[in-house]
Fold these 3 entries.
Entry 1:
Amino acid sequence: GENVEQHPSTLSVQEGDSAVIKCTYSDSASNYFPWYKQELGKGPQLIIDIRSNVGEKKDQRIAVTLNKTAKHFSLHITETQPEDSAVYFCAVSGNTGKLIFGQGTTLQVKP
Amino acid sequence: KAGVTQTPRYLIKTRGQQVTLSCSPISGHRSVSWYQQTPGQGLQFLFEYFSETQRNKGNFPGRFSGRQFSNSRSEMNVSTLELGDSALYLCASSPIDPEETQYFGPGTRLLVL
């Protein structure tokens, strides 16, 4: 079945620095790639998503890039702030819409 | 618009009991998916409902079941609870297809003793 690998599992950066989280997937039929942010005690919150006909998408300080040939996609956060500290999950889905999640990355932004 | 709501938020049960969790999707959303989140297994898909029909199912035993009502509200039931069922159960809704953006609720934290 579909498998999603997410790296790193933990990431610590200084406020103002950039953070990059990478995911690789196995099913070439996957066509939807969302990223979620989960804060303590809350459900995952969608922060950005990309579909297979687009290579890059940006929303203010957040960007996602997709390489379908290599089957990997990445989340880029620039000018990190303490409130960016959370667990980030990548996910993939194909035609069924079932989301397969990566293992999560705990991002700590130090003031 | 109000977001996805889930009730109850916290639940404590003992082994062998059964439990029912409820999810109200975003107004106008017709697809509801359920996920289990544990520290060891991460986020795993349970099942998805649309128009009161289960369209997709994950790899969970038959003790896990669900249903959807005509107003798109959904419930999931776990029978004969095991210690390993302790988890955060998350509900997500999307307009029509789960391929569209899925919006998650806050989850129900279930502890099985």
Entry 2:
Amino acid sequence: QITLKESGPTLVKPTQTLTLTCTFSGFSLTTNGVGVGWIRQPPGKALEWLALIYWDDEKKYSPSLRNRLTITKDTSKNQVVLTMTNMDPVDTATYYCAHRRRNEYFDYWGQGTQVSVSS
Amino acid sequence: NFMLTQPHSVSESPGKTVTISCTGDSGNIVLNYVQWYQQRPGSAPTTVIYEDNKRPSGVPDRFSGSSDSSSNSASLTISGLKAEDEADYYCQSYDASTVFFGGGTKLTVL
């Protein structure tokens, strides 16, 4: 059974760096074809893809946020970490991590973690 | 950036059929698969259709998907509407370097 869970701060101040951790079970990020992605959703708004890391350590980023994002994996801990620099109130959102099966199909999602950006 | 456009909202009566469109603004999204996610308030998205027209286990066959290269679009069709189908629906696709979601469609079952 695949499960994912996001963790991190619920409140960050503007200009700070956000670090979110996705801890997963039921699969390995060393398995060919597997990936973990991050997606966010501001209150009342649409889903927005942020980043994706693959079993072979290939990484992809949203073009509009590329210069602020870093995604890494720790296969020994079954974790994927997303950092986002220079946080702004517009980054207030629920952040989800999700398991990528193939063809960028996210078949399992975490419950999401709410992050507010405010001074 | 490539964008996927969905109607902001659709509504239909129980028992009827509704179709939600997802149109790419450039290129040909049929070259890459389209997924459809259902999201109820306060919950994470769940998949109703993947790879254009496949249903995950547990999703009723009232849900179907298709893609049309001539119109550069994909569609999600829900037949025999039930009150429980009321939710937001998002299409999602990708290209060589990015993943993108549509803006979402709010389905109201009248």
Entry 3:
Amino acid sequence: DADVTQTPRNRITKTGKRIMLECSQTKGHDRMYWYRQDPGLGLRLIYYSFDVKDINKGEISDGYSVSRQAQAKFSLSLESAIPNQTALYFCATSDSGGESPLHFGNGTRLTVT
Amino acid sequence: RKEVEQDPGPFNVPEGATVAFNCTYSNSASQSFFWYRQDCRKEPKLLMSVYSSGNEDGRFTAQLNRASQYISLLIRDSKLSDSATYLCVVNQGGKLIFGQGTELSVKP
């Protein structure tokens, strides 16, 4: 079983719909992150959370919200999806040490029509 | 200016070549640095951390220059299997910021 699990793997939705992407982890890490990836732009940080009560905006948080329901769960919501939110979304975790690398889920491919 | 910038490439090299990637960062308070590898839009995977003294892992060597605010990755004796996108990552107080990635294609 994957240590970092994202659901769904693929989703097609219409403009204006609310959609939630879910991420759960079994690594016991405190820190969780949501990134989106677009061709030529690398991964851009949407939101990150250092623990259940600590949530921070990343580089591109507009149009997104998050919820850290438990240490192991971090969900990303698009309240009203728009076509330029079509992208590949990755959840990642890390331990709390400064040198700790990221561990990624398999990604969610989202298409907004 | 982006916080972390890489040469987007692509780099097309023959097998056995040596290739180097550079990555610059704008925040001098950045704490730690990594190189990741990503294949065909799969999830990125850690290639190596970058230490102040420089570090080597087989054919891969990473260097950090804090004064000039850049990190580098050197791949020696490149293999077909090294073809991928290489992403540099900079840790700014727990916020991990990616460069846009450098694509490498190794040809027979």
